[in-house]
Amino acid sequence: MSKFIKSRLRSFSYAFQGWYYVLRNEQNAWVHAVITVLVIFLAFWLDLPTRDWAVILLAIVMVWAAEFFNTAIESIVDLVSPDKHPLAKVGKDVGAAAVLIAALTSVLIGLLILGPPLLKRLNF
């Protein structure tokens, strides 16, 4: 059992190292982090119902996961293709597009969920 627990702890350690790498090396991760914090504070301030929280959290996770996958793709492409190659560019561009799609979708979700109660709270 001890070996199992140590293995799980090591797995968590690797995951947190990856998280730290993204925050340390990807400028867009800081944009995501600031927006994440602002959205969470806004959702608390608006006292969103549980279902709305669930959707907001899924949108946040979708963007973060896309950013992490994109960073992984970029790292692997740089490893296997240090020289410029058209297919390496495609891989990186498609990864970046995934982040863009996730981010734009999360903005729409945020407007749909946070917009009406925010306007009501601001008396608009």
Structure overview:
The structure is a single chain. With 124 residues, the protein is mainly alpha-helical. Helices cover 89% and strands 0% of the residues. Helix 2 (27-45) packs antiparallel against helix 3 and helix 3 (50-80) runs antiparallel to helix 4. The radius of gyration is 18 Å and the shape is flat. The mean pLDDT is 96.
The ordered H/E elements are HHHH
Instruction: Give the distance, in angstroms, between the N- and C-terminal Cα atoms.
Output: 59 Å
Helix content: over 70%
User: Which whole number gives the mean pLDDT?
Assistant: 96
Overall geometric form:
flat
Number of strands: 0
Share of residues in strands:
under 5%
Largest sheet: none
- What is the CATH-assigned architecture? Orthogonal Bundle
How many domain regions? Answer: 1
Spans of at least 5 consecutive residues with low confidence: none
What is the CATH C level class, in words?
Answer: Mainly Alpha
CATH topology: Helix Hairpins
The class by helix and strand makeup works out as: mainly alpha
Q: Helix count, per DSSP?
A: 4
Q: What gyration radius follows from the Cα positions, in whole Å?
A: 18 Å
